[in-house]
Amino acid sequence: MRQATGLIGIDTHGRSLVEVTRAVAQWVAAQGMDEGLLTLFCRHTSASLLIQENAAPEVRGDIERWIERLAPEDPAAYAHDDEGPDDMPAHLRAILTGIHLSIPLIDGRLALGTWQGIYLFEHRRRPHARSIALHLLGE
Amino acid sequence: MRQATGLIGIDTHGRSLVEVTRAVAQWVAAQGMDEGLLTLFCRHTSASLLIQENAAPEVRGDIERWIERLAPEDPAAYAHDDEGPDDMPAHLRAILTGIHLSIPLIDGRLALGTWQGIYLFEHRRRPHARSIALHLLGE
Amino acid sequence: MRQATGLIGIDTHGRSLVEVTRAVAQWVAAQGMDEGLLTLFCRHTSASLLIQENAAPEVRGDIERWIERLAPEDPAAYAHDDEGPDDMPAHLRAILTGIHLSIPLIDGRLALGTWQGIYLFEHRRRPHARSIALHLLGE
């Protein structure tokens, strides 16, 4: 058994779900392992990592509207606004959705279901350069 | 050190929390390891994995009512309804609760607390055949 | 490659976010590894583990007020109250925030971002002795 670590950079275009399945699968394939465990870790407190439906595009719009209801931009609600009104909601959205993923690698493929894609969820209004740390254990 | 991977199939009976602690512990025991790390990954976007109180049955009813408030079935709220009014809420419930778990194995036992059980949370109204991918690293 | 497991005990002072970054980093450093994967697992159903902003103290107050809105203490809302009105909300808060974390170790350091701290989130009103299980794989 052996391990590999790495970083993937993702440039976002403001608040939205960015699919990263292909970039992640390419990094995994380059390590040449057949069986193991992949871990992804988002190194930010205002972006997150999510596995969701990759088929119907309406799903992503529905997720965005729903999370805006649960963690609204509402200047009256928060004490923390160092970086503007989308700062604190971005932290709360990251709490709701999570910032790390662990996915088994079986028979040379990530064990994702048929309809599962990996997404980086940008929670700030403006574009950001995001960094995901990766760890792969396997053989 | 070595690793093992596998799949567990769970037949659900529609929306509910299904305890899988025993099935998971049996799979772990069959690998014959004393110390390590177990990872569980739910291969679906409308079911999830959760660790919760395994003693009081009222807890499961309270969780169900609470999550229905946070991610309601409300046809007016969602654009995505390819598989019916419980389709999009199922995705949102999966986001809230998470789809993967990592649990250390110490002294031959999963490091679960006294009151912790592992549950598959079925979010669709109808029964489904669900698949959990497992990875165990250890010795 | 090798692995290490352990337990860290944290005494909380009732409902609040307790930073544990230093205690965790010290445990990791004591294992003498440069590259690997750290997993933290909270052995309770009414406390959780969270990575959040470690700079602005207002963030922690905003998180507390926000989560009280999403999982309120409301005796009329829950059937389960074996340990008082903060019992069931504590379970729900733990579901929202998660109870396990996986963080790559790269070049001798946890791959946390600049503003990321690790927190134990105590959800009960009274002080509790909490236990976090740790697993480190690496070399």
UniProtKB/TrEMBL annotation, chains A, B, C:
What InterPro entries does the entry give?
Answer: UPF0047_YjbQ-like (IPR001602), YjbQ-like_sf (IPR035917)
Top-rank lineage group of the source organism:
Bacteria
* Membrane-spanning residues: none
Q: Which family does it belong to?
A: Belongs to the UPF0047 family.
Write down what this protein is called: Secondary thiamine-phosphate synthase enzyme YjbQ
